[in-house]
Specification:
mainly beta, eight-stranded antiparallel β-sheet, 8 strands, globular
Length: 109
């Protein structure tokens, strides 16, 4: 495994867009190429959508993101919050679970 500190990484979406991810620390599994990021992870897409979570795992085989510890997704005037998140690699199909809450038409507190 490779340990990472003060990470800034770019994930490329199928539509040609990018998602910029930052985190204070993380690791990459040398065999599976799975990535785990810790301590308040933040992702920002070119369309302005944001995603934050204390811990995020990218499963390289499934090409899916898993967030845990209290997640928040903001896209345009919609805010999703919950305990956990599961998403496709493009961050287009998102499932939030555990105390899931959605606010539309404004910004969440």
């Amino acid at each position: 495994n490779t340990v990472l500190k003060n990470i800034t990484g770019t994930f490329y979406r199928d539509n040609g867009g990018k998602i910029i991810v930052t985190a204070p620390q993380g690791s990459i599994d040398g065999k599976t190429r799975d990535i785990v990021l810790d301590i308040q992870v933040k992702a920002v897409a070119e369309d302005g959508a944001t995603f934050t979570a204390p811990t995020v795992r990218f499963n390289n085989t499934e090409k899916r993101y898993y967030g845990s510890g209290g997640v928040r997704v903001t896209r345009e005037d919609t805010v999703l919050t919950g305990d956990q998140l599961e998403s496709d690699a493009n961050m287009e199909k998102i499932k939030v679970s555990g105390h899931a809450h959605i606010i539309q038409g404004g910004k969440a507190q």
